[in-house]
Amino acid sequence: MGEQITRKELATRLAEAIKDRATLPLLQLLCDAQVEGVGEVADIWTGPFSSLRDDILGFAGGEGEAGARAVGIWEEEPTTGEFVRSRRHIDLWRFCANVDRIRKKGNRKRVAFLGESVARGFFFSPQYGPAQVLEKQLAAVGPSVEVVDLAQSNCGPWWLVEMTRAAAALQPDAIVVFAGNNWRAGSLSRASTDAFVQDGGLLAEDGGLSALMARQQRRAAEIAEHTVRELAKAAHDMGVPLILVLPEINVADWLSCPIGTLDVPLMSELDTVAWVDVFSEAREAADAGDFREAEDRVQEAINLDGGTCSASLELLAHVQLKQGKTREASAALRRSRDIVDETRVLPGIFSVVAEVIRKVGREVGALVVDLPHVYHQHFGNSVPGRGQFLDYCHLNAEGIRVAMAGTAQAVVQALFHSTADLQRLVEAGPSPSPEQEGWAHLLAGIHNAHWGQGTEICSFHFKRAASCYPPIGEISIPLVYDAFRHGVPPLLLSSFGELVKNQIASTYLMGYGLIGRGLIREHDLLKSIVAAFPSLGNISSDPDFVLGEIDELDLLDAHWLPLMDGNRWYRRAFKAAYELESAFPFVSARSQKLELSIVSRVPGARQSGDIIVKLNGAQVGRVSVQDQWCDQRIVLDSSRVKQGLNSLRLIWPNVPRADLRSSLKVRFETGQQLDTRTHFGHLHELRISAAT
Amino acid sequence: MAVFVGISAHYHDSACCLIKDGHLVAAAEEERFTRIKHDNGIPSNAFRYCLREAGVTIADVTSLAYYENPAKKVARQLWAGLPGILNNPKQRFRIDPGRAQDEIRDCLGYDREIEFVDHHLSHAASAFYFSGFDEADIFTVDGVGEWATTTYGRGVDRKIDLFEEVSFPHSLGLFYSTITAYLGFEVNDAEYKVMGLAPYGSPRYLDKVLQLIDCWDGGQYRLNMEYFDFLGGDRMYSDRLCEHFGEPPRVPESELAQFHKDMAASVQRALEVILLDKVAYLHARHPTENLCMAGGVALNCVANGKVLREGPFKRLFVQPAASDAGGALGAAAVACVRHGEDRLSRERQKHVYLGPKFSARDVARVVNPSPLKQCALDYSEDPEGLIQATAERLADGKVIGWFQGRMEFGPRALGARSIIADPRRPEMRDRINALVKMREAFRPFAPAVLESKMAEHFEIDHSSPFMLETCRVVSSLALPAITHVDQSARVQTVNEHTNKRFHDLLIAFDKLTGCPILLNTSFNLRGDAIVLEPIHAIWTFAISNIDALVMEDFIIDRTERPEAWSEIIEMMGARLKKKRRAADAGRANVYSFL
Ligand SMILES: [Fe+2]
């Protein structure tokens, strides 16, 4: 008992010692020895991937029949020695090749083909994909080779190595690994004490965020090096050659930041005001066609944000392209894609990871298929974009054929020590059927919209879908429109059941679609569909969202959230506006007088300012705003409210605001979720109702 | 206008409630919104709901109260958690006296003064201020909050005085959880299973169990720490405890032997013995007729029944949300009192229907575009027809998802988000277990009975609207689905004032069958939170095998399931199995001291 009292007394003293925020991180010291090794730090179980974490880790338990070997979802059948797809892993079937059994190796040479969703043929899977294309290309230039498709969507580096080791059971003659998009460092807080303290310190400094990102890039490079070496070791243990296919990303046609939002880092009080000024000037100049002026202005913004903001880099690229500076624009876009932002994990290979694959891959004796190089050779000088890609990193049919032609060259060299002509291989690669290609574009349209891409690119995919295969335009697109326009998840709708009768649609919508958590913005999706197919605009929006049918609309309500995914990066009870102008579309049954109630603030505002409220382009009011919540109402005159779709915009004032970076440091040191981006305003309520 | 918000979070089930002008107008657990069972994150969804339900905005909030004192808690967390931290550095972030405040600022947006209310004061207030008693003794018992694990107090008018406490690591909650873990059940979740298992055994190990605790005269008791291990981080009992009982710990999910049943009976009896002893002490200190109880241990309805029947008090009020979620209520009430708000209602809490409700239109918007529309009947013009049709289905042996009005606050479904069935059918227990619950077959379901006829069927002389005590079944009807092996049942009594539609249904079922009782269990699948909104109800209905869903004015009968859904069910089943395995592999079955 005496011991208990002493223990309590000591605990109380220690608690006293760490009650201050500055001394709390002392606990960090105590755990210093426990930080994970580099392989374990490789962590893709964040953001969009976390839902699959347990499914993948579930393998590690080795629950299969006693002594049975397994390669991913395929388990060895003792009687035949074949590997049979296990129903226990039905939750992962849609993330893997649609193959019931992997037969025993025959006379043909065998290639084990591993990788991530890009290697899977995301959007085409399971009917068409890189492995199938590679097999046909190889057959066209030499002896027939069997390609065993082990690529798996959402595969991270740790699991990739596990799969590669397991593939030994299939007795391959070569290993092809097409991966790198999911290789990224885990969250900052897992680093060692030294790194941890330095990371925290950087958060509060000018230019610190930029330095911090460089550190995270270096950590990703370490993980990449570790992974490449492990892959090489696995191949070496099997005594077979390793071919690494280095991915390329969509540079030209992908926005890092969802459209309409900005990712402006927290900066000093003066820098934030200055950044908003120069960025706004740059945008105005660009809109006015004065691209040189715009380039100068946006360059000033980049000097302030240290290249940590995709919004400024992408504006720079835009105005450079307008001036024909393709190479500079491409470099700016790649810089933008290299930004590390823990809150929006997006697959796509970092430049540093690509460098590691090139360098270490060669060091360990692997053949490296350098896709950026292959594409450059094949497609000429154009910036990789919609010609090769369906989204941030997934390939279209042309992209797949060229990528696999480059891979086939390496396989031919590794297995037969001969060479093959790239162009000939490209031509030998099969194309998907028009129907398959149409579905891929249709799903890509949905995916792009859900990740906040613009109407233009989304509509492009929808139009392509219908031109590839007209029945898609006549039947499937109206079904998609219907499935996503209601206040309930598509899964619960009849139209969803119709859509997933198609195998490609079912693979995407019932695989990734059920667990994915991009930015769900159904209004943008519907808008893009209507832009491509104006006749669908006649189908009214769900009456449950129409003012006049209902009395009141909560504009902060998410359209709907997936049933099986309650996780969000931030659990906020309010909307944080990362943008200078926040847009809210709504539908009114008729031209009517409406009342808008706004509860808003500008966090850290040094002085009050005015939110300018615009309805359908015209200013309809101002709302005073300060750093504390303020509840206000304004009336929208009926002459301003249209029947049908209306656009409400709130323009936040550029008032000086307190530098919040020191609080960021404190929060980092206590392990809290970090948001390193500027909130230009907060909305706790935004409600619109018929005025009485 | 005076608006007080109460928050509990960062430990077990997080929750938010709101008291406006002295009246509790809204309360909800965050897990219902996020669909993460036992979600302990800051309750941002529940907070938004409460504001909206009360018709106020964040700018109107007078004060926000948090249900414990994080600064006080840190020392206790260090006491118990430090060894764990050394093994799992990520856990260090759970020790942070500033975290509650930071997250209330960051996630809820609340920027004014926060009222911190001690954990057990929150529990005490959640019972006393909602008991309707002008004066009462107060007894709180849980696992642990800051340091206190048991408190003795007294409430008079608006004043609560907690005059004695038992301090961690000595804790009746942890004692019970330790045996729960030893018996192979999940700590902090499955203590009620031990209670349910107890009647199958005899308390033959009572003496041995009591050797684990030195129960002193007065209010204090001490756990014999050589039998417990709250520091190792991977289990709660020591090797000594296994030696003491001469059996190894039970492997989870394995067959239950007589030893396990006798152990359950013994620990339950031990708890009752100690509670009765301590209640007698409390009464001796301040003799009065009224007792208020809260804290997780107060959810042990078998013990509550004993306390009332065999203890010195005439009346007992247990806060229906007795565990930490209910701490939000107490915290808000304390903030009210501290701000001199003399409008704080002193009426007895009559019901727990404090959560969101949904209109017929809300339901229609979910039902109409779905494939279920073809088998949906709309009774909005004929509410009596709805009751009649539901009663007929129940009499036919159908299992029904019952979704009506505002959601319950607290762990029990009480006729707003319930699964209901005919309690007379012997097969019903297995059937419901197979359809949705997939739980151990040894536990019976609970009955809901018409208050006007309760005495004909149960040995109870007072209303029991919250299913917080057990009593003997004395019915002339055979009620196998709701009667425990010891002839007891965990009764909810229903009258027309608190839940009109449920009451009407019981009347209609009684007319049809002569049985004024329904089997009542919560509307959720195993491992899921109870349904909150029509979307959740439809989905749970779709992927389970419940026969019919009665949601507001709609009745939806089961028909063939769309193919895609069948496949998703299989996928979800596979995923769930893996999640369980990953959780079992990665997490020790211990009470989280952080
Ligand atoms: Fe508690």
Largest interface chains and counts: A-B, 78 and 76 residues
Strand order of the largest sheet of chain B: 13-22-21-14-15-20-16-19
The value of Rg of chain B in angstroms is 23 Å
Oligomer: heterodimer
What gap, in angstroms, lies between the N and C termini of chain B? 37 Å
- Here the CATH topology of the largest domain in chain A equals Rossmann fold
How much strand of chain B? 15-25%
Q: Bound small molecules, which ones? A: fe (ii) ion
CATH class of the largest domain in chain B: Alpha Beta
- How does the overall form of chain A come out from the CA principal axes? globular
Gross CATH architecture of the largest domain in chain B: Alpha-Beta Complex
Number of helices of chain A: 24
Helix content of chain A: 40-55%
Mean pLDDT of chain B: 92
Keywords summarizing the entry:
heterodimer; A: 692 residues; alpha/beta; Rossmann fold; Serine Threonine Protein Phosphatase 5, Tetratricopeptide repeat; five-stranded parallel beta sheet; five-stranded mixed beta sheet; 24 helices; 19 strands; B: 594 residues; Nucleotidyltransferase, domain 5; DHBP synthase; 3 domains; eight-stranded mixed beta sheet; 22 strands; 37% helix; 18% strand; binds fe (ii) ion; SGNH hydrolase-type esterase domain-containing protein (chain A); SGNH_hydro_sf (chain A); Carbtransf_dom (chain B)
